[in-house]
Design goal:
Elements: H1 16-28, H2 30-34, E1 42-44, H3 54-62, E2 67-74, E3 79-87, H4 95-145, H5 151-162, E4 167-174, E5 179-186, E6 200-201, H6 206-214, E7 218-220, E8 239-246, E9 251-259, H7 267-311, H8 316-330, E10 335-342, E11 347-355, E12 358-359, H9 374-382, E13 386-389, H10 396-405, E14 410-418, E15 421-430, H11 438-477, E16 481-486, E17 491-494, H12 496-502, H13 506-509, H14 521-525, H15 529-540, E18 548-553, E19 561-570, E20 576-585, H16 587-626, H17 632-663, E21 671-674, H18 675-692, E22 696-700, E23 707-710, H19 712-729, E24 735-742, E25 746-752, H20 786-796, E26 800-805, E27 811-818
Parallel strand pairs: 22-24
Antiparallel strand pairs: 1-2, 2-3, 4-5, 4-9, 5-6, 7-8, 8-9, 10-11, 10-15, 11-12, 13-14, 14-15, 16-17, 16-20, 18-19, 19-20, 21-23, 24-25, 25-27, 26-27
Helix pairs in contact: 4-5, 4-7, 5-7, 7-8, 7-11, 8-11, 16-17, 17-20, 18-19, 19-20
Length: 823
């Protein structure tokens, strides 16, 4: 029992009507309040002896109550109720009896307080358990319904039921209109549903707008006392509870429940509705993602169909029709026209047009003139999307163009471009005067990008086809067989000559792996199995081997001889893009060279014997004449004859030695030879000639008697040939020098001159047989065999020979020999 309200808990031997009447009297009658003691207790030993008001006196006597005691049941913090004892006979309430009753009341207060606390906690736990059960059920329903049309109704129904409300609504924010739209509602008074599209409000409007903007829970116990309350449904609720629906990054909307009772919603309702709003936000977020995903899937499906249709052909007309049809379907338009742009003539040419799903032949009544139509000009030059309707305020020329070619409706101009290059534009016409939305424009741009690439590819394909035809014609007109291998190790090109050389058709070779065992290309192309596999592996790893050449015999003892050239193929960025194999049948050439070699060797052998005989005869004549007095003219003639025969014999020996060195038949007989005596002997031998023509000849000898393992006669001839060439081309007053230096692994001989020098492009070629540098005329014409012999002799020793530019002008010929002869 409180001071303003009471509730009966229990009694004994009392009628219910008496309890109700007494409870009302004890709570309201001020006279009874006056009889209470300071602690609120009331003790009446005898009704007749107490001055009671008429109403309680008559009630007690009617029920034959003679005495009573009413003791408050208190805790330190609150009044829980009263304990009242009625008696039909007089009772003397002494001090001790009063203390005992007060003590009993205190104990009862403690027990009752515990019971109430337990009951309240139990009730609260039951409420939370019920709310958790509801939330779990709601989660299942929201998850199952997140993609359905009744998601909004499910959220609102649970909110109304859980809060014991009579009505309510769910409002969501729409970014495109910047408004709150009610998507589901149950009105307190309405029986007929209104259109949801009509229920839109500004974000800050009404109590729901405040909850949306502030993100706070608003619990209005009496709506009439809040001036900012606006009921969007005009159902005039008494109490309102608004909870914002907050998503991961922004507020999505508001859940509101309404009741016709005051103070209908408490903190428990707020907590429950907040949790429901969180679950609803998650479901709404997932639903939004799902709908966006569905829209994107639809968009991607259309784009895939468009790209497939566009990519089916490499002819510009077919591509144009595919692009026009794809854009018409994707944008739900009535007509699409493709124009190509010619930057030279600054004009557009119609490529294709689709009208009502069918190709339309013939141009439109008027081709757009870019110089007159500003929208078309901006689309072409600035690559900007343009759109307008026939009712919009655009230029007169644009209105006339739209009216003449299409009539009333909406026109969209879409540029076709790659980078800074404009290829053309698309005109898309829709009879309805509805603006193309952002999602539609995004899809159209994606198709336009693919269309631009496809149109550019058609042009490139045409150029490549022409280039391929020219290349095929060139390759098929050559004598060599050609194979081009890509970086995957597959044959990408083969000409007819290759088909004839290896006996496999070009169709069977096309795009086959070079190491395909069924083709057995290794022996057909002159590769060892491991070399062919290494080549293929290197290509697949993006590595380029060094270019090279090879001569090999045909398979199956065909008697054919082939010459193969291998070379990597790089693009303009020096990136490896493949490998080139060129094969030539050199059977006849080899036979001619063999015949020439045999003839040369035969002639050399046949010349050597008579020359030796002539030389010996000259020596005998000289000895005979030395003992006699002979004219100087005769001696001079014999000297000239001796020198000429020696030169001819040297030439014959060089030819013979070169032939033997090339065939590997000439043996090198190395022996330890001192370098200093060798160089001194050569200097003395050529010093007289140098002096006679006015050339300074120097020598740089090693400091000690350094020895090298060489065939002394061959190396002496090499140095003699180099000195002879130096003296031949060095002008009067020039310098010729011979020398030697050593490192830890090799020794290098060199001969320098101050002659005209050797151009870079001939520094490798001059070591070939019979090779002469054009324009370099020496004192006498050479045979072109000296440097060829020098190269072969040096290489036979395991060394190498080369020429460098002399800083003082002229050339320096060098050759290095290993200090230890290779085994």
């Amino acid at each position: 029992e409180g001071e303003t309200s009471s509730a009966f808990i229990g009694g004994e031997n009392l009628a219910s009507n008496f309890i109700d009447q007494w409870t009302l009297i004890i709570r309201k009658d001020p006279e009874i309040q006056r009889l209470r003691q300071d602690d609120g207790a009331l003790f009446i030993g005898h009704v007749d002896q107490t001055d009671l008001p008429d109403e309680p006196d008559q009630l007690l006597k009617a029920k034959k109550v003679t005495s009573l005691a009413s003791i408050p049941i208190r805790t330190p913090n609150s009044l829980l109720g009263r304990l009242t004892i009625f008696s039909s006979h007089p009772i003397l309430y002494s001090l001790r009896r009063r203390e005992l009753l007060s003590l009993f009341a205190s104990q009862a207060a403690f027990a009752l307080s515990n019971a109430l606390t337990y009951a309240s906690a139990d009730q609260e736990l039951n409420l939370h358990a019920d709310q958790l059960r509801r939330l779990e059920e709601i989660n299942r329903q929201l998850t199952a319904s997140s993609v359905s049309d009744n998601l909004y109704e499910i959220i609102l129904d649970h909110a109304i039921e859980a809060c014991s409300a009579e009505g309510g609504y769910l409002a969501l924010y729409r970014s495109d209109t910047d408004r709150l739209q009610i998507v589901a509602y149950t009105s307190l008074r309405e029986t007929k549903k209104r259109e949801l599209g009509d229920l839109e409000f500004l974000p800050g409007e009404g109590i729901f707008g405040r909850a949306f903007e502030t993100g706070q829970i608003l619990n209005i116990p009496r709506a009439s006392e809040d001036e900012q309350v606006r009921d969007p449904l005009d159902s005039k609720p008494v109490s309102i509870l608004c909870v914002p629906v907050c998503g991961p990054e922004t507020t999505l909307g508001v859940i509101c429940v309404e009741s016709a009772l005051p103070h209908a919603f408490n903190q428990s309702h707020e907590q429950y509705l907040t949790q429901l709003a969180a679950n609803a936000a998650n479901a709404l977020h997932h639903a939004q993602i799902y709908h966006e995903l569905q829209a994107r899937l639809t968009e991607q499906s259309l784009l895939y169909q468009a790209s497939t249709q566009i990519a089916e052909s490499l002819e510009s007309d077919a591509v144009g029709l595919a692009v026009a049809d794809s854009l018409r379907v994707t944008l739900r338009a009535d007509m699409a026209t493709i124009y190509e742009w010619d930057p030279v003539s600054q004009s557009l040419t119609q490529l294709a047009r689709i009208k009502d799903g069918r190709p339309s032949s013939g141009p439109l009544p008027s081709i757009p003139e870019v110089n007159e139509l500003l929208g078309h000009a901006q689309c072409i030059k600035d690559r900007t999307i343009m759109q307008w309707s026939s009712t919009e305020e655009v230029s007169r020329a644009e209105r006339e163009y739209l009216k003449t070619n299409y009539g009333k409706g909406h026109l969209l101009l879409l540029p076709l471009s790659i980078g800074e290059r404009t290829l053309g534009l698309v005109e898309i016409y829709r009879k309805e005067m509805v603006v193309f939305r952002e999602a539609e424009l995004r899809s159209a741009q994606s198709i336009a990008i693919q269309a631009s690439i496809a149109l550019d590819n058609t042009e490139l394909f045409q150029k490549i086809s022409e280039s391929h035809n020219r290349l095929s014609a060139i390759l098929n007109s050559t004598r060599e067989g050609i194979l081009l291998i890509n970086t995957d190790g597959r044959i990408s090109l083969a000409n007819r000559q290759m088909e004839q050389l290896i006996g496999i058709s070009t169709d069977d070779l096309q795009m086959q792996p070079l190491d395909n065992p069924d083709l057995d290309l290794g022996p057909r192309l002159g590769y060892l199995p491991q070399d062919l596999q290494n080549l293929v592996n290197a290509l697949r790893q993006g590595h380029a081997q060094l270019a090279g050449t090879a001569t090999y015999e045909g398979i199956n003892d065909s008697g054919k001889t082939y010459f193969r050239i291998d070379a990597p193929v790089h693009d303009i960025a020096d990136q490896l893009i493949g490998w080139l194999i060129s094969i030539r049948d050199i059977t006849e050439q080899k036979e001619v060279e063999d015949t020439r070699e045999q003839l040369t060797e035969m002639i050399v052998h046949d010349l050597r014997s008579p020359l030796t005989a002539i030389l010996n005869s000259i020596l005998l004549i000289q000895r005979e004449l030395d003992s006699q007095s002979t004219s100087s003219a005769t001696k001079q003639a014999l000297l000239v004859a001796d020198r000429s025969v020696n030169q001819m014999l040297g030439l014959v020996n060089s030819l013979l030695d070169i032939s033997r060195l090339e065939s590997g038949k000439l043996k090198i007989n190395p022996d330890n030879s001192q370098v200093r005596p060798l160089l001194m002997e050569l200097q003395e031998r050529f010093q007289l000639e140098a002096n006679s023509i006015g050339i300074i000849m120097n020598a740089k000898y090693p400091d000690s008697d350094f020895e090298v393992s060489i065939d002394r006669e061959k190396i002496q001839r090499v140095l003699a040939n180099l000195l002879d060439n130096a003296l031949k081309f060095t002008p009067v007053g020039g310098v010729v020098e011979i020398g030697f230096n050593q490192t830890t692994e090799s020794g290098t001989f060199w001969v320098s001159d101050t002659g005209p020098g050797i151009p870079n492009e001939f520094q490798e070629k001059i070591f070939g047989r019979y090779m002469q540098v054009p324009g370099n005329a020496g004192r006498r014409r050479g045979t072109g065999l000296g440097l060829a012999f020098a190269k072969l002799a040096v290489e036979a020793h395991g060394g190498k020979i080369w020429v460098e530019e002399n800083p003082a002008g002229g050339s320096i010929f060098k050759f290095s020999l290993p200090l230890e002869r290779p085994q």
